[in-house]
Amino acid sequence: MSNSSIRSVLITILFSFIIGCNATKEAEEKSGTIPVGKYGVYYQQKGSGDAVLLIHAGLQNHSMWQKQVEELSKHFKVITIDLPFHGNTTGVDTAILAKDVVKTVLDSLKIEKVSVAGLSMGAAVTQDFIIYYPQRVSKVILMASGIYGYEEAHPVDSVTAAWYPRFADALAKGDTARAALEFARSWGEGVDSRSDSLTKPASRYVYQTTLNTLKQHKGQHWPNLQDSPKAFAGISSLRMPVLIIHGDKDLPFINESSLYLEKNIPGAKRVLLKGVAHMINLEQPAEVNRLMLEFLKQ
Questions:
Q1: Domains of the chain and CATH, by start
Q2: What is the pLDDT of residues 21-77, one digit of tens each?
């Protein structure tokens, strides 16, 4: 082979390598906005392999999953989104259900099958999605999860019931700082919260993110859940692997719901974390990462 031929081969190999590296980098990390009706739904994607979707809690956003994205993206393609009226998602379209927002995002990203993890409100959206689109789901992780419709058959305990009027009153008076504080005390600090001082890094994060969300989106709308029938009626129909994680310092109603989910989803596994309130992935990220990876890799 002549020197010129060797040079041509080497150049071809070099360019192929550069193009390949750029393509891999592009596949591993990207973000953008996906049109869903009148919404512009913000998403981020990182990693490669089987897809895992993480759905955030109410009044939070995709950034609450930072520690999970860092770890899970070493093994999976991880997608986070901002639900309607949260984070960087824009627009108003109250006719679209949250489960169909999720479906449209996955369709746009050409993801046919996905494992889904949701926390709190994110778990409620997850339940709707997995009940109505089970063929799109590999595995499910429900964290600090209530069940939409559960309260109609089971009275809400006094501890859980007490927090909402304080939050709603502050919101009605336009006191977003006080509303964010009440939210962070209940959902960030947990049942042992006794003062206005947010002592945990997780609860301080929840306070600031809640305050930002209330200021940006005004708290006037919420992602639409499936209303008829509600998720409570469809939970027992689930047949995919389900992991339930909750904290012993969470509000009693959430812990009751977690026990109900374990009992009524065939084969579901439940893990109770000690000394943890509602935002379990923020309080114990390393342990949550371990549980998630163990479950997803099985």
A1: 24-147+230-297 (3.40.50.1820), 158-217 (no CATH)
A2: 444 444 579 999 999 999 999 999 999 999 999 999 999 999 999 999 999 999 999
Q: Is it the case that residue 167 has pLDDT exceeding 60?
A: yes
Model confidence pLDDT, tens digit, residues 90-130: 999 989 999 999 999 999 999 999 999 999 999 999 999 99
Q: How far is CA 136 from CA 63, 155, 224, 267, 277, in A?
A: 25, 33, 20, 19, 31
* Calpha distance 167→180 (Å, rounded): 8
Give the number of residues written for the chain.
Answer: 298
pLDDT of residue 197: 75
Residue among 144, 116, 136 nearest 295 (CA): 116
Closest CA to 113 of 50, 69, 54, 56: 50
Strand, helix or coil at 102? helix
116: three-class secondary structure by DSSP: strand
Q: Cα separation of 31 and 12, whole Å?
A: 31
- Which residue's entry shows tokens 């789901």? 137
41's tokens: 């739904």
